[in-house]
Amino acid sequence: MDQLRAGVSSREVARVLPLGREGLLGRIREDLERIARGEDPKPGYRILLADYGQGKTHTLQAAWSLAEDLGFVVSHLTVSREATLDRPDRLYRKLLQDTYVPGHHEPGIAPLLDALSGRPEEAQRLLRFVEKELHPKLSLVLEARLEDEDGDTDILDQDLSGFFPPVADIRRAYRERHGQAPKVDRFRLVDHSFDYFRLLDRLAVSAGYAGWVVLIDEFEIVGRFGRRGRALSYDFFRRLALDRELPHTLTLWAVAASFKTDTIEGKGEAERLPEWLRERGQNDLAQRIRRPLSILSGEAALPPLREEDLRRAFSTIREAHGTAYGWEPPAEDLYDQVRRHIPERDRKIRHLVRAAVQVLDLQLSYGQVEDLFVEEVEEPPQTLSDDDEPPEGEGVSRAWPDD
Fold it and tell me: In the chain, how many domains are there?
């Protein structure tokens, strides 16, 4: 109840209060079950496009609970100036800081590695995949980590967590275990960091879990980046969601409906951005972002929640409040009570839910409900310049380093 009162979305609340998105969650469940059976979920991603306050984040949290119950490793990221999509190496590190293995309360992939050490056949199969498909550096890291989990694995764990120590340190750790270490090709973040996503996709399954779910919230923040940052973000969306390089992964993307009007349509993104890239000789990138832009342009918004869905959800809130505080709330329909105190123009679900809890709190404490005034003051978004690079110090969309 405290989380509902504060308007904070959480897995615990979303598990029992899906807020009218049962149909969508049912389709997500079907996707997850296909992945768990080793089938292609087709398409392997879902976009949750809706207005602000219509429960996108809440639905992501409900999907998190669902995925956890089905045995999936879950990662979550909220896009921001500090967590952008144009640098997969930094994004991987951010994701690992909010990655949870079922049955474990601390973030990180250590439980996957521990589980894999007890599955020698799966470990060998994974090592063969890494040796064949990924950069040789990852083979050194994984082999050394699996063979000596009781020893000093700090350097190896740092690498697998996205901090990427120098290759010389990795070879030294490998040499301590094997007497010598093979030379490896140069590791470049710009070229090879996505290999870590591919490794985690396979690692989850090899360790005995159903797969991997990646939740990306507030994708609309991409619209505030410079043109190069936006292009690289769309390209990352392509790799993570469309190219099926991660066959055991489902990605869910929460996007504000305003992204289509403000960015896709307002900036003429589908035509102008590829043209801008071609003018700078980046023809390959211009071609790669065409499909993700087409998908984002054509995505339909989630239908508004129906009144009957809200009435059912508010009935659940009423029952939960009575159970939590040991009383019997009035029999009058809670949704009707809230609507008497909240302006009809206010359709934000979190405002209505918070008001519902306030109504119940007042009834419990005073036996009646005074007028509620719910106001929201929103700061205007600070949109970055549409230049190639953002202003100095912003930390968004900077050029890639050499390695």
Answer: 3
Q: With contact defined as beta carbons under 8 Å apart, do 260 and 296 qualify?
A: yes
The list of the chain residues with pLDDT below 70 reads 148-151, 345-347, 370-403
DSSP, residue by residue, 74-92: EEEEE--SSS-SS-HHHHH
In contact, 140 and 174? CB cutoff 8 Å: yes
**Quick one: pLDDT at residue 40?**
87
> What's the pLDDT score for residue 31?
97
Is residue 285 situated within a structural domain? yes
Report the pLDDT value the prediction gives residue 108, as an integer from 0 to 100: 96
CA distances for 251 relative to 32, 95, 291, 343, angstroms: 10, 13, 17, 36
- Amino acid identity, residue 108? G
| CA atoms of 5 and 9, how far apart (whole Å) | 10
Q: CA 215, CA 240: separation in Å to the nearest integer?
A: 11
C-alpha 53/C-alpha 305 separation (Å) is 11
Q: Is there a single domain that holds both residue 288 and residue 320?
A: no
pLDDT tens for 298-351 read 999 998 888 898 899 999 999 999 999 999 999 999 999 998 887 776 668 888
Output the pTM of the full model.
Answer: 0.87
Count CB-CB contacts under 10 A for residue 91: 23
Question: Could you tell me the residue range of the domain that residue 140 belongs to?
Answer: 111-194
Q: Residue 86 falls within a domain, yes or no?
A: yes
- Are the C-beta atoms of 76 and 60 separated by less than 8 Å? yes
Residues 330 and 354 in one domain: yes
